[in-house]
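FORM 7B - TANDEM STRUCTURE REPORT

SECTION 1: FIRST PROTEIN
SEQUENCE AND TOKENS:
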Amino acid sequence: MEAVLDRVIANLSGASPVQRGGLPRNLIIMSHDFNPSVLASMDLESVKGLALEAGGRTSHTAILARSLGIPAVMEMTGFLAEVATGDPVLLDGDRGQLVLNPTSERLDSARIRLEECSLMAEPPAATAVPARTRDGVAVTLKANTELPMEVRMARRCAAEGIGLFRSELLFLRCPGRFPTMASQLETYSMLAREMHPYPVAIRTLDLGGDSNDLTTGVSNRQNPVMGLRGIRWSLVRQDLFATQIEAILRAGASGKVELVLPMIASVEEVREAKAVIARISEALAAAGDLPGIPVAIGAMIEVPAAVLALDGLAREVDFLCVGTNDLTQYLLAVDRGNPSVSHLFKPLHPAMLQSLQRIAAVAKECGKPVRICGEMCANPFFAVLLLGMGFTELSMNSTSIPTVRKIIKEISLASAADISAQALRFQTAGETAGFLLSEVGRLVTMDLAPYVREVVGAAASDRATPALEPPWTAAQESCSHRSARRS
């Protein structure tokens, strides 16, 4: 809402758009909250970190920062009153720490850690070789992206395609207007060419949650995550939906393209969307502009209704994408961007695990490919759990792919299945977390310490996470283990 008001005020006052070029080097952005569209429009070479009082690990801003390799911490309440523009700060996204006015000794220690991390970093694979478990099962690792520039990182990390391209930022970066069919086609075609011969799955516009924006006509009412968003908005604004569909279909001439429908809750929504797609496809074919290769249609499974009605939904589409971020949010009735209830956002909740098990079972029964597209699979502990449930296609931020690939090579599908079966018997997220930490840690050789905090946080029941050190002052640290992990 604040971002919308800022834009309205700027338009009414006739002020020139904010210029975000020429930023100082080594910049750390510090704010109460931060709109992802603003981050996407900045000179990212200058941005070295992000510290916010609001947000959370699965917020849109945190996901984008992780994808771009920008260290970030969230839910660091109260620090803004103690810092001014130009102050030196030290941000540690791995540990969820922010140090104001760090001493020279602390800076030296941080530089040593950075050098160690650089030496330990696994060299990116030259080609996208499928990851295989110890017992020979192939697991496909794809990248989630939001910006066209991210395709370079996806290739560098040997992603086997783009499992989910979130198209929202193409719209958010066009203030006051919608991107034309030609401009969308240019982006989608570039993605298809760059990732060839691997597929690119383009999710149609999904605004209305933490990506609210006035230009789309999406209502800024209370509780927008349950309002006119995703496929609901597209079916209301079929003129704009049709423009995006045409761009996606035309992009099929440049490579293998897939189309994903967001926030599906019923068979009727899928059929209505498919009718629009068929109409555009027929018009393009009549004009001789339709590529020979058909574009596969998938559905995001991210609301409880879709999980329960999956038998029918699966038969309407070519493949399924599981959005674990929103599915957790809707299933547990927890706003993932609200710090006051972030302790209740638990991807290891028994209801969430049982839902995932049902999705895997129904997809197998219907013979439909299914992939996980949420941040959950970027954590090695969770990746093993999902693999054991039968998910052999995982899509995550590009920088997590090398680590997950390495873990998969150390685990057999049989051992992962045993871990998942036992995890489903627990009654609390805390019990599941403790079990995962013990069992996965026992089976692999790589150091998983950087990921333990997230697993513990995914099961925490406390309302306020205690600081790991005394509360910070201008020269002390402040910590939160619900911060966004350094990418």
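SECTION 2: SECOND PROTEIN
SEQUENCE AND TOKENS:
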Amino acid sequence: MAVNSTIRSKIYHTNSFAHPFLQLADYFCWAIYRKHEKNDSRSYNIITKAVENEWVVFKK
């Protein structure tokens, strides 16, 4: 994949506590990670009704 070095861009970092939906997305990702990588579904069980589709990217 070629990278166009003539395009300027800026990346801004903000704290997740400033964005409640970012915190929510982070929690969902963490819960799904724990379920698959650590075999710990406690947090996933809390959010399971809100998960419409779970796509396992790096399925072993």
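SECTION 3: OBSERVATIONS ON SECOND PROTEIN
The chain has a mean pLDDT of 84.
The helical segments are 20-37, 42-47.

SECTION 4: SIGNATURE
Preparer initials: ____
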